[in-house]
Design goal:
Helix content is about 45%, strand content about 15%. The longest helix is centred in the middle third of the chain and has 19 residues. It is globular, with a radius of gyration of 17 Å. The strands form two sheets. The chain has a six-stranded parallel beta sheet, sandwiched between helices. A two-stranded antiparallel sheet has the order 2-3. The protein has two domains: about 130 residues, HAD superfamily/HAD-like (Rossmann fold, 3-Layer(aba) Sandwich); about 70 residues. Helix 1 crosses helix 4, helix 4 runs parallel beside helix 6 and helix 8 crosses helix 9. The chain is of the alpha/beta class. It starts with 5 loop residues before the first strand and ends in a 10-residue tail after the last strand. Strand 4, helix 6 and strand 5 form a beta-alpha-beta unit.
Length: about 210
């Protein structure tokens, strides 16, 4: 097998669990707009993880909600105020494994379907930002993961990148981009056809 020269990572369900914080962000955004509703539940938002934000809004609010535009204008501002403080539960071994990969010359990237500021918030909370070469988000590019993966590969001339994620949608996008997929089986979802499976984050070291 051609040596792996780079790893691209999903965020939610792969690096950390910040769903409780996301619920706070969504509830605060609804409240700021004067929308009275039941609080967003952990299980409710967990079921939407990995999807583009437009799809999550449709499921949590409604496709025809009249405040849609205002919600998406306000959501990033509230997220930036809350997420870097509350953060999430970073999975065991993430810090040491990322550092080891970086020190061995593996180039690290992130691709997520979060808001444009989502990965910056993750970097600020975790302190991992210096380990990564670049990143792409759905909120920043408006593109699905397969397109963002291809862009990183082409821009940085990556020869054997792999994508690490936790749900079937991640796997499908990775294969569509012509890359190999590593399923983080400890994460939020299932996967029927991964190229590799890890049970713990530090299992990634075995791949190189």
């Amino acid at each position: 097998m051609k040596p792996i020269d780079s790893m691209i990572f999903d965020m939610d369900g792969t690096m950390w669990d910040a769903v409780d914080t996301y619920c706070r962000v969504w509830d605060s955004t609804f409240a700021a707009l004067g929308i009275r509703r039941e609080p967003v539940r952990y299980e409710q938002l967990l079921a939407q993880m990995g999807k583009p934000l437009d799809d999550i809004f449709d499921a949590i609010a409604a496709p025809d909600a009249p405040y849609r535009k205002e919600f998406f204008t306000l959501l990033p501002r509230i997220e930036v105020a809350i997420e870097p403080i509350l953060g999430g539960k970073i999975y065991p071994g993430v810090r040491d494994t990322l550092t080891a990969l970086h020190n061995r010359g593996i180039r690290l990237f992130m691709v997520s379907n979060c808001l444009e500021s989502g990965l910056d918030n993750f970097y600020e909370y975790s302190g991992f930002g210096a380990l990564f070469t670049d990143r792409r988000t759905y909120g920043g590019t408006g593109h699905d993961k397969d397109i963002n993966l291809c862009e990183l590969r082409d821009v940085y001339k990556l020869e054997h990148p792999i994508y690490v994620g936790d749900i079937q949608r991640d796997c499908d996008s990775t294969h569509k981009a012509g890359m190999e997929f590593v399923w983080a089986s400890y994460g939020f979802g299932t996967c029927a056809d991964p190229d590799f499976t890890i049970k713990r984050f530090d299992d990634l070291l075995k791949l190189i």
